[in-house]
TrEMBL record, chain A:
UniProt protein name: NEDD8-activating enzyme E1 catalytic subunit
Pathway: Protein modification; protein neddylation
Xref: PANTHER family: NEDD8-ACTIVATING ENZYME E1 CATALYTIC SUBUNIT, UBIQUITIN-ACTIVATING ENZYME E1
One Pfam family hit: ThiF
Record family assignment: Belongs to the ubiquitin-activating E1 family. UBA3 subfamily.
Domain of life according to the entry: Eukaryota
Enzyme Commission number: 6.2.1.64
Purpose: Catalytic subunit of the dimeric E1 enzyme, which activates NEDD8.
Organism per entry: Elliptochloris bilobata
MF-aspect GO terms: ATP binding; NEDD8 activating enzyme activity
InterPro entries reported in the protein's UniProt record: E2-binding, ThiF/MoeB/HesA, ThiF_NAD_FAD-bd, Ub_act_enz_dom_a_sf, Uba3_N, Ubiquitin-activating_enz, UBQ-activ_enz_E1_Cys_AS
Keyword Thylakoid applies: no
GO cellular component terms attached to this protein's record: cytoplasm; nucleus
From TrEMBL, chain B:
Transmembrane domains' residue ranges: none
Record's protein name: UBC core domain-containing protein
One Pfam assignment: UQ_con
Classification via Gene3D superfamilies: Ubiquitin Conjugating Enzyme (3.10.110.10)
PROSITE patterns the record matches: UBC_1, UBC_2
GO molecular function: ATP binding; NEDD8 transferase activity
PANTHER family with a match to the protein in the record: UBIQUITIN-CONJUGATING ENZYME E2 (PTHR24068)
Record key words, sorted: ATP-binding, Nucleotide-binding, Transferase, Ubl conjugation pathway
Taxonomy, superkingdom: Eukaryota
Species name: Elliptochloris bilobata
Function: Accepts the ubiquitin-like protein NEDD8/RUB1 from the ECR1-AXR1 E1 complex and catalyzes its covalent attachment to other proteins.
Pathways per UniProt: Protein modification; protein neddylation
Xref: SMART domains: UBCc
Segments forming domain UBC core: 29-174
Amino acid sequence: MDEDERWRDLDMLLMRPGNITGPGFDPGPECRECLRDQVHVLCVGAGGLGCELLKDLALSGFGQIDVIDMDTIDVSNLNRQFLFRMKDVGKPKAEVAAERVMARVAGVAVTPHFCRIEDKPLDFYEQFHVIILGLDSLEARRFMNQVACSFLEFDAEGKPDLASVKPVVDGGTEGFKGHARVILPGVTPCFDCTLWLFPPQTKFPLCTLAETPRSPAHCIEYAHLIQWYAERPGEAFDADTEEHLRWVFEKAAARAAHYGIQGVTWQLTGGVVKNIIPAIASTNAIIAAACTLEALKLVTMCSSGLNNYLMYVGTEGVYTHTVAYERDAACPMCSAGVPFRVRPSDTLQQVLDALVADKALGAKLSAPSVSYGAENLYMRGPLEEATRSNLARAIGELVDGDGSVVQVNDRGLAAPLRVKLCFVDSMER
Amino acid sequence: MIKLFSVKEKQKKEAAAANGLSKAVKQSAGELRLQKDISELNLGKGVSLTFPEGKDKLLTFEITIRPDEGTYKSGAFTFSFNISTSYPHDAPKVKCKTKVYHPNIDLEGNVCLNILREDWKPVLSINSVIYGLQFLFLDPNPEDPLNKEAAEMLQSNPRQFEHSVQMAIMRGSSIGTSYFPPCRG
Ligand SMILES: [Zn+2]
């Protein structure tokens, strides 16, 4: 098959102008070449969603794909993580997935990274034009969100600098339900703007677990949260160690027998302890397809993209719905930060006084505390004494330079306020 | 759009080089929220807080509660707090490091406090948890026990319960099958 024949369907999208194309769409053969040679996409996760995403990306013309995953292949993955075979059990998911996709799709380069996402430096993430997430935990999503938002820069008027926007496409599934969303930090809401979308996990009261267990899950949680620490003190529980899980399962089964409770199984034990929701292959396929299309739209603009959250519910019938969520103007991750002019020689005390005296900001501030990244420059409350000496230091010494964003906290504020320090000459201000 | 990528990238690199800002991964949103919680903490009388890893590592700390009335008067009870980066989506993990005879605290230091588990909400704060813990010492609840023996004694013989607890705080003593070292604060 020649290249034109092979990409006939893709060319339908990329070779012709249309009425619903996105801004700046420039149809032509360069689109496909660029997708193949220049666009660099990162797929985070090589599990249920990840396998689908990698296959979809490769078959949609993306030629430079990296995949990162810290897991190794388990027998229980094989029913839906179709890039893996029995002989691959125990090998790193990222490496096997990369090899399999390259073997099946000619011309695509897939680079695996068998490590934790936290182990890669920011420069690693910066090289990608799109980051696509096939993750199953809120914590990992929040980390990737933080990474994407950390590239974001704003101009003097507080508008996002489009060159610094790192697009993220996020997919997620839970049984028959799923979502796909497009995050353009600074433009569409990030994870932390809409954190409330993630419902809290069900947590049972400890006293119920201890005294009045009624369900198999109660028995498992008791063994996991209470018996483990009582009987194996000082040993950290690791849900991925089979012996640990087996121990919890056996203790839970004994407890269930004691209380006449049925249904503690090995599978349920893993489910409860790791908070696993059954994965359905078709849901993964649907969500991965939606995510890949959004990635394709983002880099080619062959169609205006999803704005900005698609939910899919397959429990009764097939239902999808798109919601344009809004950014949180005070989001701690993606908001611009209020510009505030200071002289580098001003002491921290002078900066605080100026903040409180400021017409706009001062209305909400009475006793501000200031942090710069992890560093608590001045804190009221129990850390007041430990941070007091900074008040006499020049702000220019305490932060990295012009444009540094500090977090200001005050009881008058509902959330941390981001303040962008704009350095001015000693005469100005 | 595609063309924009390469052009943009170049501009961006130049801009970054020009202002020389260090590019560390920012604080997690959980840590940012914790900075707010800690800076606004109003520790009442009888509560102290320490950060064993210093003023810039807020994710682990210890608080000590010294009740000045009630059954647990004159004791000092230390709790370790471990905050995950998903705070405030997830509740702080709290353990009692002082061995105490209490219906809602077991001998391993697990604490049964609703807002630490089933009733946790992101609008709650470290301050709410500290209030909750203080309340546990003023009003131990025998209805939902974690230490059943303690709950039974509190219900059947409140005076003996108070006496046993005070003995343990002041001098250390064995109650039932366990020994409780003194924890006078
Ligand atoms: Zn945001």
